[in-house]
Design goal:
This protein has about 240 residues and is α/β, with parallel strands linked by helices. The chain contains six helices and nine strands.
Length: about 240
């Protein structure tokens, strides 16, 4: 068995805390708790879920104006958990930062934070040596792709209704297999994804959800997104046991 403690390492850039009510968890049991990741003068809030014997972990990179409470990303996360994949949903911006509209499109800021959170997760004992993937939505897809270009250990990337065109200068450096999911009626975003797809040099696929608009609100649209996500991550995320 292992313990997740809330001890903060003074001066450690990857310091972390877990809510006080965290409890001792058996290796084969379900782990779920709120976390806070320290970065400079801010704390990025998130929720980490590791199903029993979880091996891969998917980190969610939310889009502009969204957060870890996004119902669509939560639905995808829950579906992944059912297949034995761990998930980390966290806020790229604090509530105060999110009030400044330009921060939502500061892709470099979002990328730096995603890289930091990824390195924190790699040092978090229960997740050590787990394979990692990114699931990005809207502008969060751009930061996911830029972060993947900087971190060769990322094993797979998915963009849902994303803006990979905002990371165009980094696309040819992405090595992780990348799936771009776009609604068939999301005409402008589809055009941008087709352009970005041509720049990717990694294993790649452009999946068009017919009849879906940008938010995939149509009946059955999110179900198709979840099926695609499970299939992609199951194929490309290497499974290792948590020890």
């Amino acid at each position: 068995m292992w313990y997740a403690t809330g001890t903060k390492r003074t001066g450690d850039p990857y310091s972390w805390r877990v809510d006080d009510d965290i409890k001792k968890t058996e290796m084969n049991n379900y782990f779920e708790d709120n976390i806070g990741i320290s970065l400079d003068k801010v704390v990025l809030e998130g929720r980490l879920v590791l199903p029993k014997r979880a091996a891969p972990i998917v980190i969610f990179s939310h889009g502009s104006g969204s957060s870890r409470f996004s119902p669509r990303n939560q639905a995808v996360a829950e579906r992944l958990q059912l297949t034995g994949i761990g998930t980390l949903l966290f806020d790229l911006l604090t509530p105060l930062e999110d009030q400044e509209y330009e921060n939502r499109f500061d892709i470099e800021l979002l990328t730096v934070r995603l890289v930091h959170v990824t390195k924190w997760l790699e040092r978090f004992a229960p997740a050590t040596d787990c394979s990692l993937g990114y699931f990005g939505a809207s502008t969060g897809a751009a930061s996911a792709l830029k972060a993947a270009a900087r971190l060769p250990q990322i094993s797979a990337v998915i963009s849902r209704g994303g803006r990979p065109d905002l990371a165009m200068e980094a696309l040819d450096k992405v090595k992780a297999p990348t799936l771009l999911i776009v609604g068939g009626l999301d005409i402008e975003v589809l055009r941008l994804n087709e352009q970005a797809y041509d720049w990717l040099e990694c294993p790649k696929k452009l999946a068009i959800v017919e009849g879906a608009t940008h938010l995939f609100e149509e009946e059955g649209a999110m179900d198709e997104v979840m099926d695609l996500a499970v299939g992609w991550f199951t194929k490309y995320l290497q499974k290792k046991a948590i020890v």
